[in-house]
Amino acid sequence: AATKDDPWLLGHFGDNEMPLKQKDIIKLNLALPEQDHGHQEALRFLEERNKTPDDITPADDEAFCSKVISRYYRIISSAIKRYDPNHLFIGTRFHGGVMSQDCTFLASAPWVDVISVNYYHHWTINQSEITKWANLSGRPIMATEWYAKGEDSGLENTNGAGYIVEHQSGRGAFYENFAMGMLRNPNAVGYHWFRYIDSTNSNVGVYDIRYQPWNTLTESMGRINSRMYSLSDYLTTAAHNTAFLDKDETVPE
Fold first, then answer.
1. For 60-81, how does the pLDDT look when each residue is reduced to its tens digit (9 = 90+)?
2. d(CA 16, CA 174)
3. CA gap 112, 130 in Å, rounded
4. Which of 142, 59, 143 has its CA nearest to residue 102?
């Protein structure tokens, strides 16, 4: 790999938001053409468990999903490490329902260096979720997509899952609050704002489409990131952390 000796490179993503939900995963694979490898593997899996398509249980789906996840991440990890042994494999940015199933983290853990999650619909980090994922996987957690869009940007803001706030100051407040939540958790190792530049109709970036910074947002970023290590040291001490780690701070959509 051309970047294998790049000291500024942290690592590689394998993909993005893979559809790895365990619910009905066996039947979904059986619905594929008979010559498809997924169909054939689902049949083989049922035969090994002396099962038929009519008596599949949620436990069967979970076991098959674990098998799929493990195989996928083993193959991707092996390919990445073969050509770039010097950098991290940062997973595939889990999103949605796959983040609520234990097998996602248990089965991928042997093959990834970091668990990456696209973390939406939370104004404040749910500390118990981050801790649970880290405990299941034995891996650190990185939030790899999160953002807010400003109504004062002049854009329609019709695309994307991020919050819509009235002003750029709200985007900055969201950044500071979210980043501080990650810094509070000793299992978190990074946070990655969704995009560098806006899309044509949504205020998702740090810069607008003319490559001009959203200064209020970047000022908030600077306030946190210029002292992130000292903040992390302070916030992760036992005295300050107790109030946060088990608190569910999810904000409804």
1. 999 999 999 999 999 999 999 9
2. 24
3. 16
4. 59
Q: How far apart are CA 73 and CA 13, in angstroms?
A: 11
Q: 139-175 pLDDT, tens per residue?
A: 999 999 999 999 999 999 999 999 999 999 999 999 9
How many whole angstroms separate alpha carbon 146 and alpha carbon 199?
A: 15
Nearest to 104 by CA among 17, 216, 207: 17
What is the pTM for the complete model shown? 0.90
Is residue 127 within 8 Å of residue 244, measured between CB atoms?
Answer: yes
The CA-CA-CA angle for residues 70, 97, 10, to 5°, reads 60
Structure tokens at 178: 């979210």
List the end-to-end C-alpha distance of the chain, in Å, as a whole number: 42
β 11-12/88-89 pair status: parallel
